[in-house]
Automatic annotation (TrEMBL):
<keyword id="KW-0813">Transport</keyword>
<dbReference type="Pfam" id="PF13416">
    <property type="entry name" value="SBP_bac_8"/>
</dbReference>
<dbReference type="GO" id="GO:0015768">
    <property type="term" value="P:maltose transport"/>
</dbReference>
<protein>
    <submittedName>
        <fullName>Extracellular solute-binding protein</fullName>
    </submittedName>
</protein>
<comment type="similarity">
    <text>Belongs to the bacterial solute-binding protein 1 family.</text>
</comment>
<dbReference type="InterPro" id="IPR006059">
    <property type="entry name" value="SBP"/>
</dbReference>
<dbReference type="GO" id="GO:1901982">
    <property type="term" value="F:maltose binding"/>
</dbReference>
<feature type="signal peptide">
    <location>
        <begin position="1"/>
        <end position="18"/>
    </location>
</feature>
<dbReference type="GO" id="GO:0055052">
    <property type="term" value="C:ATP-binding cassette (ABC) transporter complex, substrate-binding subunit-containing"/>
</dbReference>
<dbReference type="GO" id="GO:0042956">
    <property type="term" value="P:maltodextrin transmembrane transport"/>
</dbReference>
<keyword id="KW-0732">Signal</keyword>
């Protein structure tokens, strides 16, 4: 933590906050105290921040909260809420000044939260440049940092080293090798009965067909980048992978995971949620970037988890001080150790000693931030369904892709 934070808290931050009319008022110690007692005690109570977090992250944030209180005297009231309720409840309560000071959530919430005017930019001083490029991009909206990213996650290629020790440079060569090793499942890429565009996206981008176009600053435009010849070439490749038994509607997430655990494929495209589980289960695995199929970089979506500041918080100053702490190396390392995800601060991510997470981090370096447009919620089913129609043969690749593009464009222009 920067010394300025402790100095600010110790200099009477609580009094300044009380003047703001906080909904969770600050308190200060009263009564005489000796110099020796003050030197040996924790900082005086300096206020309380309410944080909403889901069941998968609550223990990690409790740990951070305890460390922060010991340093600053500021308490975190960590409230557990179901992951599916955090965003919707925040949207409902924040405009009237209710709800928390901070929420923990994914970067693709930014568009919806910002359009509702309920999150505020954060000011991190010299720590603003500490984040990895994918993490910083993911939490930037309208040229401003709209929260503090703390964890990065993406998919990559996971290899079972018992079955293969060398991995080819191209996806076609990978399929050939996999077919020789495990004919039923040359490479596992989950799809299921609704399709799964997320797990196919790195292959799609290798054809030069990103989901959205970008402006000269690298920010997404609500304009499809996957229409035209590049996207159609990818669509034809999807059919090729289906014919090679790489893609199937019968192989969803659970089926792909179990097939890999059973040694029925040397490769699976997945994320740290399963990669770490494979390693903990005793499998000898290596995590690698996904090879290119179309000649360009295979760029997965990079999803980023972070903490948002309520624009209606009465504790904005106190909250921003905590967010500055959260952007520091100590807090990021603590969250990484407790949560098992690649840290968002580059210096911490570069020094993690978990080879599985390090592999996912390296695969993310050429990734694309997960878009935050509210329209994305309606795009996923159209996109996955269009690819599934090609996989199961109910649509011819080029015609099916063109129809899918038309359906998506109609939706985003409503």
């Amino acid at each position: 933590m920067r010394r300025s934070l402790l100095a600010l808290v110790g200099a009477g931050l609580s009094l300044a906050l009380a003047a703001c009319g906080s909904g969770t008022p600050s308190t200060t110690s009263s009564g005489p105290a000796s110099s020796a007692a003050m030197e040996n005690s924790a900082p005086a109570d300096a206020g309380t921040l309410t944080v909403w977090v889901d069941e998968t992250r609550i223990e990690a944030f409790k740990e951070v909260g305890e460390a922060y209180k010991a340093e600053s005297g500021v308490s975190l009231d960590i409230v557990q809420k179901p992951s599916q309720d955090i965003k919707t409840d925040f949207i409902a309560q924040a405009p009237s000044g209710q709800g928390p000071d901070l929420i923990v959530g994914a970067n693709d919430w930014i568009g919806t939260l910002a359009s509702n005017g309920i999150i505020a930019p954060v000011e991190l001083g010299d720590k603003a440049g500490a984040f990895s490029e994918p993490a910083a991009k993911a939490f930037t909206h309208g040229g401003q940092l709209m929260g503090v990213p703390y964890a990065v996650e993406n998919i990559a290629l996971v290899r079972n080293n018992k079955l293969a020790q060398e991995t080819p440079a191209t996806f076609d060569e990978l399929v050939t090798q996999g077919t020789e090793l495990t004919p039923d499942f040359p490479v596992l890429i989950q799809q299921g009965d609704k399709g799964d565009a997320y797990h196919l996206y790195p292959i799609q981008t290798s054809f030069g067909a990103p989901l959205f176009k970008t402006d000269d600053k690298g920010d997404y435009l609500l304009e499809l980048g996957m229409k035209g010849a590049e996207g159609e070439a990818f669509a034809s490749y999807v059919k090729k992978l289906a014919d090679a038994k790489v893609l199937s509607a019968s192989v969803g997430g659970d089926q792909a995971k179990q097939a890999f655990l059973d040694g029925r494929s040397a490769y699976i495209v997945t994320g740290p949620w399963w990669g770490s589980e494979f390693a903990k289960g005793g499998m000898d695995i290596t995590v690698l970037p996904i090879p290119s199929a179309g000649g360009q970089d295979a760029a997965p979506f990079v999803g980023v988890q972070g903490v948002y500041l309520s624009a209606k918080s009465n504790n904005a100053l106190l909250a921003n001080q905590f967010l500055t702490y959260l952007a520091g190396e100590d807090a990021q390392k603590m969250l990484y150790e407790a949560g098992g995800r690649v840290p968002a601060v580059a210096s911490v991510a570069n020094n993690i000693d978990d080879p599985v997470l390090k592999g996912f981090g390296e695969a993310a370096t050429k990734g694309h931030p997960l878009p935050s447009f509210p329209e994305l919620e309606g795009i996923w089913p159209q996109w996955g369904g269009g690819e599934l129609a090609i996989i199961d043969g109910s649509a011819e690749p080029v015609a099916g892709w063109q129809q899918m593009i038309g359906n998506i464009e109609e939706q985003i222009t409503k």
